Amino acid sequence: MFVERTLLPGVGASHAVTTGRRQRIGVVAHHSGQRDVILYDPDDPGRAAATVALDGREARQVAELLAGTVAVDQLDTSVWRIRVPATSPYIGRLLPRGTPEVVVVVRADRAIAPHGDLTLLAGDLLVVVGDRTAVDKLAHALG
């Protein structure tokens, strides 16, 4: 691909390319760090059909996406809070086996990293990561 660079006095520079499929796109790089992505009209390659303005951070993120260096997977997982009731059969016991991941236990305004021998107390707030079905199962088990 051939990159056409045009200086824009007082603004920055424009960079435009035509893809192998004859689609023309461009980027105006402003001195301020702003970037405008331009999609040109297929019937008039000199006319912009659409423009998207990006700040510096957004431009870097799009560049990473285009370069393929960022991978984001959508997971069917959420963060949940479960309060251990005073009537729970697990008071003084360890967490039930096979539960979703408990990432922190909040007890008396203190955050405790869960460990293998942490027993539950009434009023503990469990911060849990997992899918809704697993979290509902844990909440039901805790009473």
Automatic annotation (TrEMBL):
Alphabetized Pfam families for the sequence: KhtT_N, TrkA_C
Highest taxon above the source species: Bacteria
InterPro entries on file: KhtT-like_N, RCK_C, RCK_C_sf
RCK C-terminal domain sequence ranges: 67-143
Positions in coiled-coil regions: none
Family matches, as PROSITE patterns: RCK_C
Protein name, entry field: RCK C-terminal domain-containing protein
Species per Swiss-Prot/TrEMBL record: Asanoa iriomotensis
Classification lineage: Bacteria, Bacillati, Actinomycetota, Actinomycetes, Micromonosporales
